[in-house]
Amino acid sequence: MKMRVSFLTAILIACNVSFAQELTISSDSFHYDNQTGIATYSGNVVATQGDRRLTGNHLEIYRNEKTGKMDTLIVQGKPAHYQGTVEPDKPPVFANANKITYDVTKKFLTLTGNAEVKQNDDIYRAHQIEYDGIKDTVYSPPSKQGQTTIILKDVENAGI
């Protein structure tokens, strides 16, 4: 079974922050630890870049100590939200989860806790959604919190 994952690909691309566009992050408080390379934003966090918007209660950005570049991004909320248009010919993507983690080096995205991704009328819900950007695979592990639900409106093009 081959599934369309363009909406998850869009989130992956969005989390891989490009500094070609200005990135603005606002929060109630900010702390940066130069020794660990961890930037912590707390309270009413809003990160915007172009039309992309990431919101939550807490955002941590980890930097690789050798390169100084962003290594991991973790945003938490009740839930944390992402929205944005990444591909010009695609509709905007909306994602929610209690925790959104993106490992830049591994190109691995994890949405945990009430995870939901929407693009157009397509919806993907699970306790956890994992996207491996290197392998281009999507996985929802078994969970005691409930089953995975996928609603595809354009079944003809779904690749099923």
Tell me what the structure shows.
- The protein has one domain (6-17, 24-157): lipopolysaccharide transport protein A fold.
- Helices cover 6% and strands 54% of the residues.
- Strand 6 and strand 7 (108-119) form a beta hairpin.
- Strands 1, 2, 3, 4, 5, 6, 7, 8, 9 and 10 form a ten-stranded antiparallel β-sheet that branches.
- It is globular, with a radius of gyration of 16 Å.
- The chain has one helix spanning 6-15; strands spanning 24-26, 29-33, 38-49, 52-63, 70-84, 93-103, 108-119, 122-132, 137-139, 149-151.
- The chain contains one helix and ten strands, in the order H-E-E-E-E-E-E-E-E-E-E.
- It is mainly β and 160 residues long.
Biggest sheet features = 10 strands, antiparallel
At CATH level 2, the architecture is Sandwich
Ends apart, CA distance between termini: 5 Å
The CATH topology label is lipopolysaccharide transport protein A fold
Tally of separate helices:
1
What structural category arises from helix and sheet content? mainly beta
What does the overall shape look like? Answer: globular
The overall number of domains is: 1
* CATH class type: Mainly Beta
Low-pLDDT residue intervals, each spanning 5 or more residues = 1-19
Average pLDDT: 82
Annotation keywords:
160 residues; lipopolysaccharide transport protein A fold; ten-stranded antiparallel sheet; 1 helix; 10 strands; 6% helix; disordered N terminus
